[in-house]
Amino acid sequence: MEAEQELTLTSDGATMVTHPDGSVTDGFTLTVDALLVNGVETMYGVVGIPITDLARVAQAKGIRYIGFRQEQAAGHAAAAAGFLTGKPGICLTVSAPGFLNGLAALADATTNCFPMIQISGSSERSIIDLQRGDYEELDQLNAAKPFAKAAYRVDRPQDIGVGVARAIRAAVSGRPGGVYLDLPAAVLRDTMPTDAGQASLVQVVDPAPAQIPAPESVRRAVDLLAHAERPLIVLGKGAAYSQADQAIRSFIENTGIPFLPTSMAKGLLPDNHPQSAAAARSLVLGQADVVMLIGARLNWQLAHGQSPRWSAAAKFIQVDVDPVEMDSNRPIAAPVVGDIASAMTEFNRALRPGQIAVRPAWRDAIRDRTAHNVAKMQARLGADATPMNFSTALRAIRDVLDGNREVYLVKEGANTLDFARDTLPMYLPRHRLDSGTWGVMGVGMGYAIAAAVESGSPVLAVEGDSAFGFSGMEIETICRYHLPVVTVVFNNGGVYKGDEVNHYTADPAPTVLMHSSRYDKLIAAFGGTGYQAETPDELGHALRAALDSGKPALINAVIDPAAGTESGHLASMNTSSLHLTH
Ligand code: ADP
Ligand code: TZD
């Protein structure tokens, strides 16, 4: 661009292109303007060449920038923001290594069907494309493609508006996912007339258009349910994401069908709802004859819909926005393709009074099994275990959360995750975030930060000690932004358990971590409050005090190193060698 321009220095000594009469804009400004016209309020990221000024311009123009210590956690935060708000969460990364750190989170977002956009600066195309060795050289667009729902690169400043618009639409329309947007340094620093720049911006109209299912697909599904003897509704995180809480609840309550929420769908209806079959999971999976999946895939987490976990004779209804999901694991007798909000409206409209009635024998069987399992769990939770085990520690947490139902819950680990799933009830939708479809360690602090930033509510992160290590440095981020996040580290001194003995060398065994670690002292370094808790009483008191303070805190909960199992509930998937003698 030949337009007259002036270089000014920012407070940090970086250069910024401006013009006395404002007639020239640049790629940084256009990117922020393009995000602003589409309602973006927050960005999560790590700065460096060439995107540092992008964060500054964002702040200058009113987008909140949350700076992380590592891109993966920032990416997980953006993904969680997407899940919680239904708008794409934005993650900002630098070239090559920062981009790759963020890419792990982008791939995870795509796997979880969370809308997210990773915006990454990149180095000089003319050097990258001939592999002449640039600073942080990488063909990022092609590297991102296999891991993203869509990937785009902007090569001219006048295309920034289109690039951002395409990224937003790709992230939230249809099945949501992670989108990569590549912004080479040359485009960020390039300039163009302000008027033309403003005219190039695109405000996306109706980014996730309603997809109304075909009426006959809804009728087919209702007909199946009307003839069922033992119907079941499974609510997945797609149902939580759709924000169709009232329509889903009406359908469930008007039909009386028992429902089973997956981990992140918990709270869509409260866990103490009389139709919840959560505590009779094996029974309903094994005996249901018609199963209605709402925003849940029949993947490994639902045993692929296969017998013996599920009845071989069961018929499935699947409500999902993605037609290709149907029949992926088991034939779907009644596919209902559409967005869940539209689909549930159609279901409620199609339902005639009394058309679906659940037989008393099915309700009674679920009620009896629930009572039996709840009694068994009470006994486990009530045991007097010293040192604490997962159940007794979680009982203390459950009792505190019972009086703080607005708290967002993040959890990761193996045993920590599995025990917490059943022990900590949820009462509100989209208040629970965990390792998700891939079972990822390292989501904890990023998810907790996003939950606090997006909601303004208190957050509790319950972390296995190994899991915490993946993103633990972000407690500095939590302290820097004064976020009301309380982290409880379940310290049993190991990946899974902490009592493995190395029979072969003097080194610690592969699963061993330091049980003597005082994770509580880490947060003190950043001005947060640390607590050490060795009994359920101490844990309960510390958690109550931490939540009451509304300030960053970390509780080191000392758990028996012998507690739990290797791989938690996934022990049967834990391939083992014939050649180990112990
Ligand atoms: P869970 O892990 O809770 O079982 P999954 O992630 O396996 O849930 O499944 C979520 C499903 O929800 C995906 O198949 C996705 O296509 C679908 N989905 C996400 N958002 C919507 C929506 N708004 N409407 C319909 N389906 C959706
Ligand atoms: N790396 C990543 C990114 N994700 C993973 N899931 C793993 C490694 C493997 N892994 C698990 O599947 S659980 C886990 C690891 C390392 C940690 C389990 O130990 P923990 O939890 O201390 O976090 P518990 O509660 O003590 O079992």
Average of the residue pLDDT scores: 95
Straight-line N-to-C gap? 71 Å
Shape from CA axes?
Answer: globular
Return the structural class.
alpha/beta
Radius of gyration, rounded? 25 Å
Question: How many strand elements?
Answer: 21
Secondary structure layout plus pairing:
Blueprint: E1 6-9, E2 15-18, E3 24-26, H1 27-37, E4 42-45, H2 52-61, E5 64-67, H3 71-85, E6 89-93, H4 97-112, E7 116-122, H5 125-128, H6 140-144, E8 150-153, H7 160-172, E9 178-184, H8 185-189, E10 191-193, H9 194-200, H10 215-226, E11 231-235, H11 237-241, H12 245-255, E12 259-261, H13 281-287, E13 290-294, E14 315-320, E15 334-337, H14 340-350, H15 360-382, H16 390-402, E16 408-412, H17 415-423, E17 432-434, H18 444-455, E18 459-464, H19 465-471, H20 475-480, E19 485-491, H21 519-524, E20 529-533, H22 536-549, E21 553-558
Parallel strand pairs: 4-5, 4-6, 6-7, 7-9, 8-9, 11-12, 11-13, 13-14, 14-15, 16-17, 16-18, 18-19, 19-21, 20-21
Antiparallel strand pairs: 1-2, 3-10
Helix pairs in contact: 1-2, 1-7, 3-4, 3-18, 10-14, 12-14, 16-17, 16-22
Task: Jot down its keywords.
582 residues, alpha/beta, six-stranded parallel beta sheet, disordered N terminus, binds adenosine-5'-diphosphate, binds ligand TZD
Question: Could you characterize what this model shows?
Answer:
It is a single chain. The chain is α/β, with parallel strands linked by helices. Helices cover 38% and strands 17% of the residues. It is built from 22 helices and 21 strands. Helix 1 (27-37) crosses helix 2, helix 3 (71-85) packs parallel to helix 4 (97-112) and helix 16 (390-402) runs parallel beside helix 22. The longest helix is centred in the middle third of the chain and has 23 residues, at 360-382. Ligand TZD binds next to helix 17 and helix 19.
